[in-house]
């Protein structure tokens, strides 16, 4: 065989000289790679590697892209050129673990130092009938792998056109399973470390494991072992179910006996239902009887009323006649009395008008002035109207002052009591009910009625930094001082219920619902920041963030300034350069200041935030002392009011006299007697009261007889009207009862009875007897149910026990059938497994002997499947001159050649679309290397449907020139360049 010129690894690819055409060689003569018909059709169509490229992988900045041929590929180059990196990238990109490569323990170790990620791109062929989703991927599948510096692996599966199809590793696993690519199988990919380990391994167990893994028998064995473990667990489960089944069967029979004993209870229940039906219609019959009695009573009363109707009409006409006579006499007497009373009043006014100042001294000037104005009414009104009106108005005035006095007194008492209580308990300032309310809230919280305990009153939870600003803060917060805060609406409803017990009248404190937080809001961006005047938020000491957040939400206290002096407040707020974010301000007196408005406060002192309670109590006591004279005056008014009330009541019963013209008299004396008018009114009232009796005594008795007859008629009329009214009321009552009974009968009784028993029954027994029998039967039924249990419970327990027993029985039966079937299948599988193992062992022996014979060796391969060992004996040289010896006694080259023969024999029995070997000839001499290479090329020639990738540091210049052999030469790495050039022997 002629030698080929080896290309210079230091040259660039474009300057690399093509290898010359070889002369006639043994390989050519044997025709391993001769072209023939059907060569193209025998090439592999799926699963082989078309190209691979690496970037920032291991210590290489750029490798590739490499275009592999469909059959034999040699990747040659010196150490460090990147041969093993290509094989490692192939394993990792196709889903292999970092430990499988023997190049590192984690993926992040494959990223070049100083780079953030490493990229690997592999293109797999996807043609023919066995292509994987050809309508999606096309004739090739590109697997792009990116490994980050943190060791994170991401995939992108692209079609032939470069379109991204999937980013899931599950899709890659499906592709590998479809192509039967096994990156962890040493026969498919034999790395350098695995090759060295295998060459140096002298254990028969390691060789057997290698055989089992190469043929995937170990995976089958593990699967069968897992199935047998599952079978054992299932058998244990069945045994437990059998024990449980016996207990369930016992319970089932027990519940069945109790279920059958319910027959007697069913009979009693049926009898009870029949009695209830009879009871329903018996009650209807009773209502019908009561309705008939009421109808009879109504007819009797109606007949009696009709009999009394003529007599009532006659008496009514007689009463009307007497009434007309009475009215005529009253008119005549009225005119006479009015005339006499007018003259009499005029004389009294003339006589007693000088006695006014006696009672006037009891009143203040205001009341006297008001009373003097009433004299003007004398000029145009009737005297009795004037007197009545004067007394009524003055009485009303005094009554109002009395009520105002009582209300003010009660308010002062409450304020003083609250201040007295707040000496020891500041909470009393917020109302007399507030301590009890908080105690109730604490009790409810201890009982767990609140999710989160409400907070309040808010005014109790804050403290003033400056006591002078108490009134200003109260005017700002107003009703919020008494408000409470809840975390949720459920707590708010519970708090409302508690408040309803303590605030039955009057206004209740406000309740604000807001989510509780543990931190105060960050209001720096929207708060007022003034150097001289604080905001309400800064003026208060608030320990609870919930209170602070609530006041921020409800009142915006971060935007309100507190300015003690009103003049300064106007200057700050009503100027053009007012503070940013400031909405309003409050003065020390509680006045509210806006940009263009100013509102004075009606409150003159702090009620809740006052610092000195004793000073407040002294202030209220002094105020009460100063008001004592005014209260004495009001007390005098009250006494006069009582007197006038009595007189007013009597004057209301006096008939109205005719008015007289008293204008001249009043006009002449008005100024002189201005301060004496009220005394004159009292004298007038007394005189009129005394004169009324005299005037009545002087009346004639000419109407006496008419009055007596009228009185008798009125008496008779009243008597019969009362009797008539009684009968009418009785009729209405009976009608109402009749209507109610009828409605009860129609709506309630009949409807209820029809609901209980739709068919109407003719019941002879009374409702009372039926009720007693129902009670007796119900008691008997309850007694037996207590002994046996409730019917529904017994039935439910029986069905549950039956269902549980049947379910477990079915499960046990199904599991037993499954175990039997699984045992049969596993026995068959074990037999097939044993036959397959034997068949593969025989084939491996045959191919091993055939490979050794190429060198003139004789070998023996002994499998011990029981002990899981594989012993290999080789006799170098001619068979008759030496005996078989263990591989451990062979030289390095002989052992390497024997190992290659073993690997090639495994190739013949293992299925995979491609084979990859890394430095398989590292310990061979030239003779063994050439023989091994010849054998591998023969196998490659006979298996053109597979792809072979050999990585070797040899130049391979002696290989025959054939288009099925592709040589990729890697140059020694140049540290100054980012990509390593390579050359290929004969690109397609």
From TrEMBL:
<comment type="function">
    <text>Core component of the SMC5-SMC6 complex, a complex involved in repair of DNA double-strand breaks by homologous recombination. The complex may promote sister chromatid homologous recombination by recruiting the SMC1-SMC3 cohesin complex to double-strand breaks. The complex is required for telomere maintenance via recombination and mediates sumoylation of shelterin complex (telosome) components.</text>
</comment>
<dbReference type="GO" id="GO:0030915">
    <property type="term" value="C:Smc5-Smc6 complex"/>
</dbReference>
<dbReference type="Pfam" id="PF02463">
    <property type="entry name" value="SMC_N"/>
</dbReference>
<dbReference type="GO" id="GO:0005524">
    <property type="term" value="F:ATP binding"/>
</dbReference>
<keyword id="KW-0227">DNA damage</keyword>
<protein>
    <recommendedName>
        <fullName>Structural maintenance of chromosomes protein 6</fullName>
    </recommendedName>
</protein>
<dbReference type="GO" id="GO:0035861">
    <property type="term" value="C:site of double-strand break"/>
</dbReference>
<comment type="subunit">
    <text>Forms a heterodimer with smc5. Component of the SMC5-SMC6 complex which consists at least of smc5, smc6, nsmce2, nsmce1 and nsmce4a.</text>
</comment>
<keyword id="KW-0472">Membrane</keyword>
<dbReference type="GO" id="GO:0003697">
    <property type="term" value="F:single-stranded DNA binding"/>
</dbReference>
<keyword id="KW-0547">Nucleotide-binding</keyword>
<feature type="coiled-coil region">
    <location>
        <begin position="231"/>
        <end position="285"/>
    </location>
</feature>
<dbReference type="InterPro" id="IPR027417">
    <property type="entry name" value="P-loop_NTPase"/>
</dbReference>
<keyword id="KW-0812">Transmembrane</keyword>
<keyword id="KW-0175">Coiled coil</keyword>
<feature type="region of interest" description="Disordered">
    <location>
        <begin position="1"/>
        <end position="40"/>
    </location>
</feature>
<comment type="similarity">
    <text>Belongs to the SMC family. SMC6 subfamily.</text>
</comment>
<dbReference type="GO" id="GO:0000724">
    <property type="term" value="P:double-strand break repair via homologous recombination"/>
</dbReference>
<keyword id="KW-0067">ATP-binding</keyword>
<keyword id="KW-0158">Chromosome</keyword>
<dbReference type="GO" id="GO:0003684">
    <property type="term" value="F:damaged DNA binding"/>
</dbReference>
<keyword id="KW-0233">DNA recombination</keyword>
<keyword id="KW-0539">Nucleus</keyword>
<dbReference type="InterPro" id="IPR003395">
    <property type="entry name" value="RecF/RecN/SMC_N"/>
</dbReference>
<feature type="domain" description="RecF/RecN/SMC N-terminal">
    <location>
        <begin position="49"/>
        <end position="955"/>
    </location>
</feature>
<dbReference type="GO" id="GO:0005634">
    <property type="term" value="C:nucleus"/>
</dbReference>
<keyword id="KW-1133">Transmembrane helix</keyword>
<feature type="transmembrane region" description="Helical">
    <location>
        <begin position="373"/>
        <end position="397"/>
    </location>
</feature>
<keyword id="KW-0234">DNA repair</keyword>
